[in-house]
Amino acid sequence: MKNIVLLGFMGTGKTAIGKRVAEKLEMEYLDIDNLIELEAKIPISEIFSLFGEEHFRDLESKIAKTVSKYENKVIATGGGIVLRKENMDNLRQGGVLICLTARPEVILERTQKEHHRPLLEVDYPLVTIKELLAYRAPFYAQADYSLDTSDLTIEQVAEKVIALFKESK
Ligand code: S3P
Question: Element (H or E) spanning 130, and its range?
Answer without folding.
Answer: helix 125-140
